[in-house]
Specification:
Helix 16 packs across helix 19. The longest helix has 26 residues. The chain is built from 19 helices and 8 strands. The protein is α/β, with parallel strands linked by helices and about 400 residues long. Helices cover about 60% and strands about 10% of the residues. Strands 5-6-7-4-8 form a 5-stranded parallel sheet, sandwiched between helices. A 3-stranded mixed sheet has the order 1-2-3. Strand 1 and strand 2 form a beta hairpin. It folds into 4 domains: about 60 residues; about 140 residues, P-loop containing nucleotide triphosphate hydrolases (Rossmann fold); about 45 residues, Helicase, Ruva Protein, domain 3 (Orthogonal Bundle); about 100 residues, DnaA protein, C-terminal DNA-binding domain (Chromosomal Replication Initiator Protein Dnaa, Chain: A, Orthogonal Bundle). Its main location: cytoplasm. This is Chromosomal replication initiator protein DnaA. One of its GO terms (cellular component) is plasma membrane. One of its GO terms (molecular function) is identical protein binding.
């Protein structure tokens, strides 16, 4: 039987059949006609006609099915509700980033895409990304937030389980993708390939992408040129923490921890913190030990670091002030990097605390010094024994 003849038979039962059948997908398979209904009502309508009014020989030619809906992809958004646009403290150094994100939320995917926010540690990048996610979620959008490192780990797990398509579909089904700590894509080639394809899919679908990193895309060593090019294809916004904004944050954080807004405490925090993480860390210590207790603890820690410097200066027969200066002769340079290394290993001081003790603007010099010592220890057995000896001596004498 031809399809037209079959449709005429159905029309003879119901005059509206031709219009209704336009909603069906009709396939011919193995001598049968498969009618795929768009929903339950249409399926029941056609089944009633077929089973009640058509002859047995015609019924055998017809199969009716309901269209299978694609399973909705379940999304774990990894958002923390404590981060909102309302409690993000705006100042001169972060105003542009804040305004760009707010505007993008009004026109997801069509105004600024991608948005790449960069700035040093503890300047509020994560807060802003999370706040954007929470705001978009509140408006009914599908959102996912992840750090680059978590993205890589999840991808590896899905590859092991054989569920990589589930992973891809989850990321490709969102309206807003927030990727934090983009610098951790560095050197992860397989992860970069996966993210590149997800990025392209979302971009072509005009879905919003917001990225954050501790450095400009051009400084992302170990990240492919084609990804860097995508990152630079939207809007780049630097985020900083100026003194006025830090002052506002300190006051808000003190209120948050129910601490008195004493001038000496605020002045101390302004003098001894550079970013939000440091502010929160110090305030937690003030809450725990009291302001005077914190001052005593930090004075003790600073004294230990200076004792390490003096110990190394004596061993190398150089001046303490030379170690703390920018002098670059071989003896002083070696003493300086070993002193930094011992401050980290013996006193467990933070990179920022060591940088401050050695009068450095940031902690990159400290990182370089520690890595240099560790690399030289691997190559030179004599140097390794020397560092081990100094470490033991420093620990016994100072800690």
């Amino acid at each position: 039987m031809e399809l037209n003849a079959l449709i005429k038979k159905i029309e003879s039962v119901d005059s509206y059949a031709r219009e209704f059948l336009k909603k069906f997908e009709i396939k011919q398979e193995k001598g049968k006609f498969l009618f795929i209904a768009p929903g339950e009502d249409y399926r029941e309508w056609l089944e009633t006609i077929v089973n009640t009014f058509l002859e047995e020989e015609v019924r055998k030619l017809i199969e009716v099915k309901e269209k299978e809906e694609k399973k909705k992809v379940e999304i774990k958004d990894f958002l923390n509700p404590k981060y909102t646009l309302e409690n993000f403290i705006v100042g001169e150094g972060n105003r542009l980033a804040y305004e760009v994100v707010k505007e993008a939320l009004e026109n997801l995917g069509s105004l600024y895409n991608p948005i790449f926010i960069y700035g040093s540690v503890g300047t509020g990048k994560t807060h802003l990304l999370q706040a954007a996610g929470n705001e978009a979620k509140k408006r009914g959008y599908r959102v996912i937030y992840s750090s680059a490192d978590d993205f890589a780990q999840a991808m590896v797990e899905h590859l092991k389980k054989g569920t990589i398509n589930e992973f891809r579909n989850m990321y490709k089904s969102v309206d807003l993708l927030l990727l934090d700590d983009v610098q951790f894509l560095s050197g992860k080639e397989r992860t970069q390939i996966e993210f590149f394809h997800i990025f392209n899919t979302l971009y072509l679908l005009e879905k919003q992408i917001i990225l954050a990193s501790d450095r400009h895309p051009q400084k992302l060593d170990g990240v492919s040129d084609r990804l860097v090019s995508r990152f630079e294809g939207g809007i780049l916004v630097e985020i900083e923490l100026d003194n006025k904004t830090r002052f506002k944050i300190i006051k808000e954080k003190l209120k948050e921890f129910n601490l008195e807004l004493r001038k000496e405490v605020i002045d101390y925090l302004l003098e001894n913190t550079k970013n939000v993480r440091e502010i929160e860390g110090k305030i937690k210590l003030i809450k725990l030990k009291g302001f005077e207790g914190l001052e005593r603890k930090e004075r003790k820690e600073r004294d230990k670091l200076m004792q390490i410097v003096e110990f190394v200066a004596n061993y190398y027969a150089v001046k303490v002030e030379d170690i703390l200066s920018d002098k670059r002769n071989k003896r002083t340079s070696e003493a300086r990097k070993i002193a930094m290394y011992l401050c980290r290993k013996v006193c467990s001081a933070s990179l920022i605390e060591i940088a401050r003790a050695f009068k450095r603007k940031d902690h990159t010099t400290v990182i370089h010094a520690i890595r240099s010592v560790e690399e030289e220890k691997k190559k030179d057995r004599k140097f390794k024994h020397l560092v081990g000896f100094l470490e033991k001596q420093a620990f016994d004498k100072i800690c």
